[in-house]
Design a protein that fits this description.
3 domains; binds adenosine-5'-diphosphate; D-amino Acid Aminotransferase, Chain A, domain 1; alpha+beta; single chain; Rossmann fold
Length: about 450
């Protein structure tokens, strides 16, 4: 029986363990000292401590993870999302050690991981772009000239940025001067890469992304889109599938772009191609994520395809059994990220959960790792669970989500459940008229979130 080591923690580690069990695979969890009581460490067949709480010394510690793989005799490593999931050097080490990395090759990751490189590939593949600098900006003067040519506002982006970090919106020459230097310095410190580029800033876009799945035999399909326009500081909070504004024709068009990008690099594995969409439904390529994403369950719900299982199966060389025409979008699915945080200030709120009861019923799914008596630790992100619903229509999905949120009991810590209920009640969201600036404009978030 094959053995998979999960180089991650939290809800995604639990999700991977579940997929492995269903596939008849053995699992090895790795955990930091702070995660001794984490559900992933309890559920896996084996669990190995890889270091102290600090991520750098545990979940980002490649030698410690490879030692755990060696000791346990793991055949493959699943990196989850975040941590080492988009680290090409880690995928390289796995290859050298003859351990299957569940994801694309290091070369594919290098082609698509950094934003400037990915834009060059996307250009070759014929994807549409927002006007901007063709590549990295060599100096301030080029930045100013490009910004003037395309017109303010523009957004400066760090090539190595991610998770909503490394971006700055700029409204005029004076701001650009400061922002260019700051952005470079910050990018060098945070991502080890000082490359920045700029593009036109869209005032009220929607975030639309296409899920793809590709095997090692040249088959690549897309599984439709997710709308992730409810964001705080460029980070997703609520996601849904399908996007209410996308017609089947537009889905084929945008899906086709995603397939072209994947084919351009011979991609295999699960991946997501992200776009912005303007009021006239023009779409523009933003970036590609070469891993499974937090919000993958909404796609699973509407397509009936277990993305995690297929991600693992294609990594082991299986052929995808479906064609593009087999993929049908059924009903509507919404996901709310349940965070341990104050619902008004969004300050993290770790601590002991002294009462825990999850909602249930037809079309309700909880992907989480919290349990009664678990202490949420302060060292990592504040996501404790994802609440996902699926119903025939968006309206019914909204009603189901509201009911499920009210049923959810998490006592002892603060969570953003009250925030989700307020967002759900807001007419702009209910009528799907919201853009990525919605939380800011509707007063849910105070700062401008650049
Ligand atoms: P990250 O890698 O940090 O997730 P992305 O490039 O995916 O960064 O962008 C994240 C979010 O930032 C988008 O969903 C959108 O809200 C905002 N954003 C990025 N580029 C633009 C743009 N050109 N105009 C308006 N908003 C943008």
């Amino acid at each position: 029986m094959k053995k998979i080591l999960i180089a991650n923690r939290g809800e995604i580690a639990v999700r991977i363990i579940r997929a492995c069990r269903e596939l008849g695979l053995k699992t090895v969890a790795v955990y930091s000292q702070a995660d001794k009581h984490s559900l992933h460490a309890k559920l896996a067949d084996e669990a190995i401590c890889i270091g102290p709480a600090e991520s750098k010394k545990s979940y980002l510690n490649i030698p410690a993870i490879m030692a755990a793989a060696e000791i346990s005799g793991a055949d493959a490593i699943h990196p989850g999302y975040g941590f080492l999931s988009e680290n090409a050097a880690f995928a390289d080490v796995c290859r050298k050690c003859e351990i299957t990395f569940i994801g694309p090759t290091p070369e594919q990751m290098r082609d698509l991981g950094e934003k400037v490189a990915a834009r060059a590939v996307a250009r070759r593949a014929g994807l549409p772009f927002l006007p901007g600098s063709n590549g990295a900006l060599p100096d301030q003067e080029t930045a100013r000239r490009t910004a003037r040519e395309i017109g303010y506002p523009v957004i400066l982006k760090a090539s190595g940025g991610g998770g909503g970090r490394g971006m700055k919106i700029v409204y005029n020459d004076a701001e650009l001067e400061k922002a260019y230097l700051n952005c470079r310095t910050e990018a060098a410190a945070a991502f080890g890469n000082s490359e920045v580029y700029l593009e036109k800033y869209l005032e009220n876009p929607r975030h639309v992304e296409i899920q793809i799945l590709a095997d090692k035999h040249g088959n690549v399909i897309h599984l439709g889109e997710r709308d992730c326009s409810v964001q705080r500081r460029h980070q997703k909070v609520i996601e849904e599938a399908p996007c209410p504004h996308i017609t089947p024709e537009l889905r084929e068009k945008v899906g086709g772009y995603a397939l072209s990008l994947a084919r351009e690099v011979g991609y295999h594995g699960a991946g997501t191609v992200e776009f912005l969409m303007d009021d006239d439904k023009n779409v523009y390529f933003m970036e590609m994520n070469t891993r499974i994403q937090v919000e993958h369950p909404v796609t699973e719900q509407v397509t009936g395809i277990d993305l995690l299982q297929w991600q693992i199966r294609v990594a082991f060389g299986e052929k995808l059994p479906f064609k593009q025409s087999d993929i049908k979008i059924k009903g509507h699915s919404i996901e709310c990220r349940i965070n341990a945080e104050d619902p008004k200030t969004f300050a993290p709120w770790p601590g002991l959960i002294n009462n825990y009861s999850v909602p249930g019923g037809f079309g309700v799914r909880v992907d989480g790792f919290a349990y009664h008596g678990y202490t949420v630790v302060p060292h990592y992100d504040s996501l404790v669970a994802k609440l996902i619903v699926h119903a025939d229509t968006r309206e019914q999905a909204l009603a189901k989500m509201e009911s499920a949120l009210r049923e959810y009991i998490i006592d002892g810590i603060r969570t953003n459940i009250p925030f989700h209920l307020d967002v759900l009640a807001h007419p702009e969201f209910r009528n799907s008229r919201h853009s990525t600036r919605f939380l800011e404009r509707a007063g849910f978030v105070k700062n401008k979130g650049t």
